[in-house]
Amino acid sequence: MTQPENPPIAHSEQRRWPDPLLARNHKDFRNALIQLYKGRGLTYRKLEKASADGPEKLSSTTIHNALNKDALPGRNFVVGFLHACGLSETEQEPWLTRWEELSWKETASPQENTPQDAVPAQTGQPVPPAEHGRRWARLLGGRSRLRTAVVAGTVLALAGAVGVVWQWRQHDFKEQHCGTFNPGLVTEADGECTGVTDGSDGAAVFGSDLKPVMTAIGAENRNVIKDGDYVTVAFLTPLTSKDANNLTIGQYVAELEGAYTAVEEANKKNTRPKIRLLVASMASSQKHWERTVDQLVARRDTDRLVAVAGMGLSQQETVDAARKLSKADLPMVGDLITADGFDATGAVDGKGPINGLARVALSNKDQLTAISKQLPSAQRTAALVSTSVTPNGTRDLYTASLNRGFRTIKGLKKHLDDTSDFKFDPRGGTGAILPTITQNFCSTGKTIDTVYYAARVKYLPDFLDALAKRSCHTQPITVVTGSDAAALDPKTEALHDPDAPITVLYASFPSADQFRSADNPSRGLYNAFAKAFTSHHHGQQFPAEHLTSSYWGIVAHDAVLTAATALHRAAAHGDPSSLPNRYAVRNELYALRNNAIAGASGHFGIDKNGNRTNTHTVATVHRLGRPLPATTKRPG
Q: Where is the stretch described as Disordered (predicted)?
């Protein structure tokens, strides 16, 4: 089996490189450096070449001497060596921290095993008179023992001090890196953990609610890398939800569980190579996307990274991440991206193609078109309520796409009242503005019986509550919105107020019951997925309700399955003695036509622009609250 250059290290801890903080002395430190370059498949010649563009150019002879000399290598050498091994500045941090500690320790400690005849004579020491030799000898011997005791005490004190500092440094490092020694994980100022892990850094790095799936990921990865025949897929997503600006509404747990299920099932099949899964978190609001994506780009060769799935929500941060990954030639399969034009064309922001991007979700156009066909034919008067930015202040491409769809889709735009167009900025809070907006519906001189809601589900409960409390609340009203509303609790109080009839319509994938229905020709695929999802995963089990409370687990599964299908085809069509690279995987991704993917949501393919095919077979309109009113007359 031909391995790619710089393969990941595999040892009992399954870490990507040796832990320098465990080096007790310069010999341990040099051995760790040796393990690092050998584990990455490098040679002295390759290190010499890789160091040429770094801070310290190293020759093969210099490398050989530094690694074999019985001494701590110089700091400049270590910096150049780590650069040549492909470590980023963040990844070099624990190595340099330990180097400084060892350097200080060796400087502070007396040399070991120093011959007595090499010790300089003490000036001013008296010479014993011959007649009093024994008395002087006893006296000098006592002083010598005193000096030895003082020196020994000083050494012990210094060693203790070094130990205390080392422990403090370790504690400080772990505090900054999510309680781990992985420099790829970072504790942000708000307490969220971001970065990349293979599951070997602890199951709770991204929160206790993810412990079962992270435990399973770590165990699966340890099994996968044993024989060396594997490639890596990263799942990039907004994990953890401490941030008040979080837009994921806790659905990320089911999402990661669905992604893992796809990997585990793929690894059970008689196909090669096996798949190692990296988890990459941008934090709940995705504001730390760049550091996380930079890690993936830097590790695409060393970690055999051939694809990235997930990608996050339809917002500016995701576009920026996709463009950076595209520039690095990494193929991507989005699971939640629905904004129109957010595909390989790059039309979403007009800045050119995003080569390598595909997606498995239903576009906003697919969703709104399905709704427009099910609205009663009676005349309506629709208001438009929209946001255009995220809580981070960046562009919200999902809501912008909905806004555009409401204005352009034939079956919807004809109902739109141009004088009832309301915008709000979530950074200003919703507690005051939403009641103000909804009260305006009662004073337009028109019967506002429909609202096109181009905003996030995060604010929908407050909006519905404001509708129920407006002065004309007895007027039935229908709220039309996008798939984000799938996260809305059907038991939301405002949906069940008999004095304020409210209906919510949104389109998304079928519900779990609809997937299992005899009317679904692909129910066997869904049932197989549901069985796999709820089975045991290395001693862990995922709750069945995660499949009924959100569709995120399904689309995450299908996104990873799409990447897995592409990489397995690349392996089958390539040299059987080598592993597929990211270029071959990208080629195969756009060749997945004719229902090539047997997903949990049914059979589908990927078209030339990276969009899911056969969306009409799964686009389903869902209703929450009161039955859809057939007429729109104001009561009384």
A: 106-133
